[in-house]
Amino acid sequence: MLQAIGLTSTPRRGLRAAVDDLTFEARPGHVTALLGASGSGKTAALRLMLELDSGRGITYFRGRPMHRIPHPAREVGVLLGDVPGHPVRTARGQLRMLCAAAGVPAARADELLEIVGLAGLGDQRIGTLSLGMDRRLALASALLGDPHTLVLDDPTEGLAPCEGSWLHGLLRAHAARGGTVLYSTADPKEAARAADRVVTIDGGRLVADQDGGDFSRTRLRPRVAVRTPHAARLAALVSREARAARRSVEVVTEAGGRLAVYGSTCAEIGDVAFRHGLPVHRLADEVGDTGPTPPGSSSGYSADSVESGSHEHPAEPADPGCLTDPDPDPAELVGRDSGGAGAGDPRPAARASAPESALPIRRRPARGPLQPLRYELRRLFGVRTTTLIMAAVLVVSVGLSVLLARNAHAPLPKVLAAWPSLLPLPPAAVGAGLLGALSFGDEFRYPALAVSRGTVPRRLGLLLAKLVVSAGVAVALALAVVLVSAETLRLVYGHDWIHVPANSVSLGASWVALTVGCAWAGLLAAGVFRVTTAGVAAVLAVPVLVVPLVQLVLTGPGVRPVAGLPARLRGLMWPGWPHETDRWIALAVGVVAHPVGTALALSLSVLVCAYLFTGLHGRARWRSQRAAGSSQAS
C-alpha cells in the first residue's frame, strides 16, 4: 500500500507550488496511473514521495516513510529517466554493479536480463542501446531488489506501441503477484487501457481519483469537434435545441473558435448550423479525454485527441505483433517471494491529518552500497578505461626505463621507476592518481548510486572500499612497472649491471608509498570537488607546489634531526616492543621525512579533513532538520 498524504512542494520565488496538498493512494495488486498533462506536477509529486525534493507532507510505503526503510531498493523500485550508467559499461556489468549496491547476488542480473528481454544483449554497451532497450535496462535496475512497490515516471515515453504494450504487461504481472505499481503518464487513453485506477492531477492538485472503468466511461467519451467563427452562438443553439428535445448534450467551448460536443453527432450539429446560417469550418468525430478543468476557465478539454476515423476504444490493446510476450507469466517475473502484501492488505486507506500533512519533507541523503567492496571492484573493472590506463603506464614506463638505462651514471632506482629528473612524477604515480580520481569522478558523472540526483553517497564504508581498492591497484601497478622494466632491461642490456641495492626495503616502501599516496590524493580531491580533473590537479600539485614549500622548511637553517626517535618512543611504551620494530619505525619516518613524502602526507591530511567536513556537515544538517520536523509534527 502506497499512501501519499498532503504532498506540497516548496514553491520557487514568484511561482506557485508545483504540487499542492496532493493526497491519494495506490493499492497492492493494482496498477495505478498518475495522469496529467505536461507541467501538471507528476514528476514533482513522485520526487516528493521518494524524498528527493523538499516540501511538506508524507508518503507511506506499507506503513513506513522512505527515510524509515532500512534498504529502500528492496522495498521501492524507482525509474526516473534513463539509466545513469557509464556508456561503455555493458548491460550485464551495470546490473551486477547495482546488485552489489543493493546487496543481492550477482546472479540476479542474469535473471532480470532474461525477464526484460535483454538476455542476448547482456554484453551490449549502454551507450549503444536503443531507447526501448535502455528503458528495459532501467526497469531491470528498478527490479533488482525484488521490491514490493514500483514508482515509474512516464515509462512509455517515446516507446513504440509494441514496447509500451510489453512494459504494461510486465507491470500487470508485478501487480498480480501482490505488488504495488504507480506510474505517471500524460496519455489518458493509455491510462484507461493499462491502469486499474487513475489519479488525475492538474496544477499539482487532485482532480479525480477513479476506478479504471469509471475513468473510461466518464472521461473518455466520443465527441464532435467543431470549428466555426460563431462558436459561442452555435454552442447556445445546440444547447437550447438539446434541452428542448430532452437530450443529454454537453458543449465545451475551447480557444480558437472550437467546440467539443458530447452526446451528439456530426449530422445533428451540421443541421443546426445550416438552419441558422452559420458557417462551419470543421466537423469531425473524435475520441478524447475531457481532462481537468482549471478553475475559472471556460475550456473543459486539455488532452491530446484522436482524429476522426480512428475511433480507438479505450480498452483496445496496443499492437499485438510484438516480438516479446506482452503478458508475461507472473511466476517468471522474479522467481522468488517479494514479501509483499496481497490485494487484501488490511492496512486502512490513507487519511490526511493535520500533523502528517504539515510534516516537512527533507531531501534524504543518498545511501551507499550494501556491499561497497564488491561494488567498487565491479565499478573499476567494468570499463576498459582502467585496463587502458594501466597498459599505457606500463608501456611509457618501460620506454623511459630503456632510455634512462643508456646513461651509465643513471641511478638504478630511478631507472626501474622510470622517473627522469625532468618529470615531476613517474608515470606509475600519475596513472595511480588518475585511477583514483576516476573512482569518484565517474560517480558524479554517471551517478549510478544516487538515481536522478547528481550527488554521491558520503558513506564511510564506500570511502574505505575506494581507498582499499585504489591502494591495491596502485601497489599492483608499482610492482608491475618495476618487474616489467627490470625484465626488459635484462633483455636489452644483459644481466651484469642489474643488482639488488642494499636499501631495497626502504626504496620499495618509498615507491609503494608514493603510488598509493598519489592514488589517495586523486580519489579524495575528486570526492571533495566532485570532478575528475580536480583529482588529477591535486596529484600534480604535490610535486609542483607542495614539495617546494616543504623543502624550504626541511632544508632551512637550524633544522634539528629526528635521529633516535624509535628508541625514544620505545622507552615511552609499556610493555616495550621488540627491537626489530625500531627498524620499521625508522623506515616509516624516513619515508615521511622525505620532501615528497611530507608533501603527500600534508596533502592527504588536508583532503581527508575536507572530505569529512563536507560529508559530516551535510549529514548533521539533514538529521537536525529531520528531528525538527518530527518534533513539529508531534
Protein described:
This protein has 634 residues and is α/β, with parallel strands linked by helices. The protein is 48% helix and 13% strand. α15 packs antiparallel against α16, α16 packs across α17 (504-529) and α18 (532-554) packs across α21. It starts with a strand and ends with a helix.
Using brief descriptors, characterize the structure shown.
six-stranded mixed beta sheet, five-stranded antiparallel beta sheet, disordered C terminus
In brief, what are we looking at here?
This protein has 634 residues and is an alpha/beta fold.
User: How much of the polypeptide forms β-strand, as a percent range?
Assistant: 5-15%
Radius of gyration: 33 Å
Q: Which structural category fits the helices and strands?
A: alpha/beta
Tell me the strand order in the biggest sheet. Answer: 5-6-7-3-8-9
| Percentage of residues assigned to helices | 40-55%
How far apart the termini lie comes to 24 Å
Q: Average pLDDT, to the nearest integer?
A: 81
Topology:
Elements: E1 2-9, E2 22-26, E3 31-35, H1 42-49, E4 55-61, E5 76-79, H2 91-102, H3 107-115, H4 131-142, E6 149-153, H5 161-176, E7 180-185, H6 188-194, E8 197-202, E9 205-211, H7 212-219, E10 220-227, H8 231-244, E11 250-254, E12 258-262, H9 266-275, E13 282-289, E14 305-306, H10 330-333, H11 354-357, E15 360-361, H12 372-381, H13 384-405, H14 412-417, H15 427-445, H16 460-493, H17 504-529, H18 532-554, H19 565-572, H20 579-593, H21 595-633
Parallel strand pairs: 3-7, 3-8, 5-6, 6-7
Antiparallel strand pairs: 1-2, 1-4, 4-15, 8-9, 10-12, 10-13, 11-12, 13-14
